[in-house]
Structure formats: structure tokens, C-alpha cells
Amino acid sequence: MKKNFILALLVILVAVASCSFTNKSFDNDDKDKFLLELISYVLERGHYEPKEVNDTFSSNVFDDFIEVIDPTKRYFLESDIREFEKYRFMIDDEIRNTDIEFFNAVYQRLMVRMDEAKEIYKEVLAQPFDYSIDETIEIDYDKQEFATSKKELKERWRKQLKYNTLNVFDDKIDNRIADANANGSLNADAVMAFNEIPSSIDKAAIEEEAREVTKNTLDEFFDFVDDLERKDWFVQYLNTIVEEFDPHTFYFAPEEKERFDIGMSGKFEGIGARLQKKPEGAKIVEIISGGPVWRDQSLEVGDQILKVGQDGEEPINIVGMRLEDAIKLIKGPEGTVVDLTVRKVDGTIETVSITRDVVELEESYAKSATIDAGNEKFGLINLPKFYVDFEDYSERNAATDVAKELERLKEAGAEGIILDLRDNGGGSLKTVVEMAGLFIKDGPIVQVRSSGQRKEVHEDKDERIQWDGPLVILVNELSASASEILAAAMQDYKRAVIIGSKQTFGKGTVQNVIPLDGIVRGNEHGDLGAIKLTTQKFYRINGGSTQLEGVKSDIVVPDRYSYIDLGERDQQNPLGWDKITPADYEVWDGYIDFDDAVKKSKDRMATNEQIKLIEENARWVKEQQDENLISLRYDDYISKEQEAKKRAEKFKSLRDYDSKLSFSSLQYEKELFTQDSVLREKRNRWHQDLARDIYVEEAVNVLRDLHQNNIKKKESELASVNKG
Hints:
By secondary structure, the protein is an alpha+beta fold. Helix content is 45%, strand content 16%. The protein is built from 23 helices and 22 strands. A 7-stranded mixed β-sheet has the order 20-17-16-13-12-11-22, sandwiched between helices. 35% of the residues are buried.
């Protein structure tokens, strides 16, 4: 359906664009203006709920763009903002006339102010900080106005840098005290005020070291900023305009589109290493299990790539090059060879040839484990996202992978399944419809409506049921979109018990990714990227939207983010909630007493001490987040730190919790461990985390109750047959 929708939208857009753009805009050699016009055109004709581009819209773009590029108000002066004010109600006119005067004015001034900021932080960090004086910093930047003078701006930088350095200073003091403790010269439990720190510990030298750490961090930050080109800042401006329509409509520059595709498919063509820019080259910070570098074993974490050559050609020096440009040279088609000149961790320099291959990001994919719960065995499937290869659906996707894991768990003797969708931000609509069909005979899964169109009902038409046993779905505040479609459908059918946060994220909209190159003819501007466009809203089969309201759990379990503002309702410019007519469906009849299982769980949760501690922790996290006035006096700082440590110590037991459940990998994965020690270690850590997870423990309890219900139901049916 998704591909068909994109095709239909492209046909409409291309048909009109051919008339509207060819003569008018293709003569314009300014790619920025062309992109602005093209994206505005697509938004106006393709968005589910297009906005009127007027003075209000203009004012919102003005405020949001300034906030995006200077959120902490440490670059622009009040005089700059006053100067920009003349554009506040002109941006809508600029969009219509494909003018970018506002962007140019802000960008040019930002470059000046950033150059000045480099000098400011170096000057500030050249002088020692006095941690004995009483002063504070407000870190709720929304409450601040822009500095009225360069002197005030420098003072703002001074406080911010002192705040950043204070934590480093405290850590270094703690380390020196710990060293002294090891020698028995200091009391290990002592909490020392600034003036009580013994003279054997050189506070001045430590303070200087702390400033150097902060300076190095800022040097790296501004080195990254220096790598940004004008086009990168313009993409920020375009997205400020685009996101006024809704928080999920987004413009992808060509490089970003590639990263999005990798994220959705979980694979790319390359050498299988994650890199970080360093002054002396690109440093390898992670080797991806199963990739070419991992198989070849000629490179290791910490090695630095200095030059890149293409299969025997003259190598190109990448020292000082933008990381994105270096990665373009290193990546390439499957089967091709790249020659890397590398400085090894031991300082030696050598050239290593790597044959590129398709690299799969294993952590993006579904994984499963068996749960040994005494005399019973259950299965758990963790699904990080609803992944798919948009170019070829027959390739690996979330629905087929979950189907495979279900079969494997059945073979392993699982009597109930936990599907963990916590932190799953969604993905492919097609995969979620297919996945829901694994748990029911047939019927509607989700309803979708395009702007001004009648609703479409997406159904499971396959009467096969992959899993007809007890099912629990775990969710939290970050379970969104496709996760909410699956959870909502299973809840409406009463097919699964939903355990988790009070509600899920609340994203009830559908996006389609539209390549902009496909909309225009005779493009002379190079790759135009793509726009992720909100084109539809989806609705539960009961008729309600998940937009804003999310899916409310059958069994609400607090977590540490229960009181933090998360979710669609906390985003800028979300679409509203509404409802449509319900679809025709029948509730699942596989459970003899669904409501009884839910009630038993709620009763257990109400008296569980661990749950009470999680609730208390959540309230404390909220308190910490709301504290925005921070003391820069060392004694006050360590006093707050000690208080926080005492509270944190109380909550440490949350990580020490032991459910007494045992988790194991399936046999096929155990066989992989003989060749992949990294995968084995990842799974061991995952299993340890699951054993400490009270949500999983309660899901197992619910599965037990549902399993007993199933047994009673079958016994009742058997007795009825015998009587007959």
C-alpha cells in the first residue's frame, strides 16, 4: 500500500510540477531557493493537514529558527535579534517569493558570533575559577533574554564554563582523595568542604587540569561546527519551516536520506566500523559484529584511518577532512576493495585492504530468549523497530523475523510469549499489519484515512495463526506509531494484555518518504534529497485515534520517566485527536477470563515494594529535572551531590533486583556463539538485564494466569464434548 501511495502522490505532484516548475524555476541556479519552492509546493499539496502560510506561521518560524541555532543564547546579542525582527512577519512572503533573505542575514551573523565565541571561551578558560564564592547559574534558558552587550555575553559564557568545569574539578578532587585513601592518609568517608581539602592535594593544579578538559571538549565541538557547510545550516532552516506543519514531517538532505534508509533496513554496504573524527584522522570507535573488518581482524578499536584509496588507486589523505566526506570514500558497493592507510594503536603505520560487503546492524533486528520459570517455559521477543527494506520487501523485515522467532520458541516449548515493544519508535505500516496477523485468524488491524478521503481498512486476510497461546505486550512512553498500531489492535481484540506506562507515545500519523528528484524534470541541481511527509492518520479498529492519547496499558506499571514530559502531546505542532466509525471485528475468544488476569496483576502491583520504589524514583527524577538554579560554589555543589548520592544509593537496589528467572538463547544462536564472542557477550548482558526487569517478571506472572485460563477453557470444552 505504501509504495502505491507514494506512486500515486508522485504522479499527482509530477503532473502539476511539470507545468508549475519547468519554466519558472529550473532557470534558477540557486539550489537553496529551488529547494524552498519545491518543498513548499509538496507541503501544500501533499500534507495531510496543510497549514496556512501567513504572518502567524512566519512569526513561529522566526522564533523557532533562532531557538534551533542558539538554544542557550550564547551567540546572538539582543541587538542582533532586534535587527532580525524586521523579518518576523516577512518569512511567509519570502516563502511565496522563494526569497531567503532572512536565512542569509541570520546565517551570516551567526558565523561572526561563533568566531567571537571561540575567542571568548579561550579567554575565559585561560583564567582560574574561584569555587569559594557564592554565585549561581540559571540553566532554564527559556527564562533568559539575549545578552545586551558583549560584556554580558562573556559573563554568561564564564558562568556556563565554570558550571561545566565544576563537575570535572569535583571528579578530579575525588580521585586524588581516593588515591590518598589507598595510602591510608585520609578518611575514606570524609566529605570535605573547599577549605578542608588538605594541602597535599594541589587544588590550583587540579583546577587548571579541569579547565583544560573543558577547553578540549569545546575545541572538539567547534571543530565539528567548522566542518558544517552553509548547506547544513540551510537544511536546519528548511526543517524549521517543515516542522511547523507537524513534528514528524521532515526534510532529508541526501546524506540524511541515506542514514534514514540504513536505519529502516538495518543494513548498509561498507566495511562495518563506526568512526569518530579526530584531528589526526578518523578513529575506529566500534567494530560491527559480522562485518568485513570484524571478519578480517586486521583493524581494531582505537586505530586511526589516515588515507583512503580505491582498490590500488592513489590514496586520498583524509586528515582534516569532514567525517561525512571521509565516510563517503570508505563506503562503497559490495565486493569492491578499499585500501586504508592506518596508524595502529601501537603507533605503527600500515595499509590494510578491506573488501566491502553488506553490513547488518544486528541490534536493529528482532531477538528472542527463552524464560525458565520453574516448571514452565515462556518466550520473549524484543523488537527495536518495525524495520523493512523499502526497495525490496522480500528482503529481511520485522514481520518475517518475528514469525521465525515465534516458530523457534514454539519448538523450544514456550507456553506463552512476551513481545517487548518498549522504546520501539515504529516503522513500516505493512510489517505491523502482517505481524498482527500472526496472532489472530483474520480481520481488520488498523484503519487509515488520507486527507479528504474515505477510510481504508487494512486487514489480515491469512487465516493461519502463527501463535494462538497467551500473549503479553510490553510498552512504555517511547513506544510509538507502528508499536501503537500493534498494541491497540491486540488490545481491541482482547488478544493480548498490554503492560507498561500509563500511555504510549501518541503518534497516530503515517508518513511517506517522497524522493524530491522524482517530482521534477530536467533537474540541474544534483541530488535534492527527500521529504518525509505526513500524509495519513491511522485509527484503531474501535474507531479511536492513538494521536496524542496513545494506547493506555491494561496494567499500568510506573517507570523512572513516569513524570517526565514525553510523547506526542509534548511535541511542537502535533495534529489533533479525533475518531471515526469502528471497523467490523470480533473479540478473540481464546481466553476464558481475560479481565481476571488483569485484576490479579493489578493486585500484585499494588503491594509490590519494588514498584513502590520505582514510583519514588520517578518522582525524584522529576524533581531533579525541575531544578534549574544551580550553585557554582563548591561547598554547595558537593552538598547537593552528597544528597543526590544518598538518594541514588536508595534506588541502586532497582538495578540489583533479581527476579529469579533464567534466560537463554535459542539453539541456532548458541551455535553462532562459537564464531562470534561479541554476540555471545551482548546476549549475556541482555539476559542479565532481563533477569533484573520487574516488568518482564510481571509479564511472566500474567502469562501464567492466562495459561491457566487456557487450560481451564480446554478442560471445559473437553467436558462439554464428553457430555454430548
